[in-house]
Amino acid sequence: MPPYVFWQRNPEIGRLPAHRTDSGCYLISEMFGARSMLYIKDEDGLYTADPKKDKHAKFIPNITVDEMIAMDLQDSVVEPPVLEFMKNAESRRSIQIINGLVPGNITKALNGEPVGTIITAD
Predict the structure, then answer these.
(1) Which of 5, 35, 74, 78 has its Cα between 20 and 30 A from that of 115?
(2) Burial 2-13 (b: 16+ CB within 10 A, else e)
């Protein structure tokens, strides 16, 4: 693992830092005031549980940060620090999670079509 101690404290448990790629991408979009923030993953969006492990997991197309925090999901498609960043953001108040393995999803999302999950700060 890289020496994260230079710019971030090492985690209390394990080797992975709390702020990883999801956090970094979000902070860049906030800093530049990006028009939108797409997370392109191998999942259709947010579910109530990991759909690869739980066949009863329900898809969540839209949710607020507060609703998501209240759900206390054990397995989330986006890193928890992103939710905290969104609560204090000035420009990037929403994110969209889409499945990049489905042809056409990226184009649909860029055109503003409802695909995947949209998480909003309010």
Answers:
(1) 74
(2) eebeeeeeeeee
